[in-house]
Amino acid sequence: MDIDFARAGLAAQPFSVLLGARVAEFGGGRAVLELDVRDDLRQQNGYLHGGVLAYAADNALTFAAGTVLGAQLLTSGFSIDYLVPGDGVLLRAEATVVQASRSRATCRCDLYTVDGEGNLTLCAAAQGSAVVRRSATPG
Questions:
Q1: Do 92 and 112 meet the contact criterion of CB atoms below 8 Å apart?
Q2: Would you tell me how many other CB atoms lie within 10 Å of the CB of residue 28?
Q3: pLDDT tens column, 59-94
Q4: Which CATH number fits domain 3-132: 1.20.1250.20, 2.30.29.50, 1.10.287.110, 3.10.129.10?
Q5: What residues have CB less than 8 Å from 101, skipping those under 6 apart?
């Protein structure tokens, strides 16, 4: 798998397209997703909605796992800690593989907002795992 394959996979996710997410880096146990912060992604106090941060963590964690396990993955679970309110022009989710076996990878993700001058602020941290998807038999 390469970055073009990862970008095609993200483009096949309607929700990711709706949010405008993009794969910025992919490979070697690492994946970075980015999305532009828009007013319709903010909550009532003007900060980036926590659900958007959770989405970015979920996808970045699984894409990082995909660099070592391949494309047929599902998120097994994740937790996220919101550290400071997210504000800026860009959200950047940087995920790395912490440990992997043949069928499971544990990853961590740091989520940053980027202001108009390129300064990063760590606004959330997540950890999760992805598992290789087993073939499902209808029935």
A1: yes
A2: 11
A3: 999 999 999 999 999 999 999 999 999 999 999 999
A4: 3.10.129.10
A5: none
| Crossing angle for the helix pair 3-11 and 50-69, to the nearest 10 degrees | 140
Torsion of CA 119, 26, 93, 107, to 10 degrees: -130
DSSP 57: H
The CA dihedral of 133, 75, 99, 114, to the nearest 10 degrees, is 140
Of the ranges 1-5, 24-28, 38-42, 50-54, which one carries the lowest mean pLDDT score? 1-5
Contacts of 94 (CB under 8 A, 6+ apart): 30, 32, 60, 109, 110, 111, 112
Cβ partners under 8 Å of residue 28, min gap 6: 67
3-state SS track over 14-55: HHHHHHCCEEEEEECCEEEEEEECCHHHECCCCCECHHHHHH
The residue assigned the tokens 């999760």 is 128
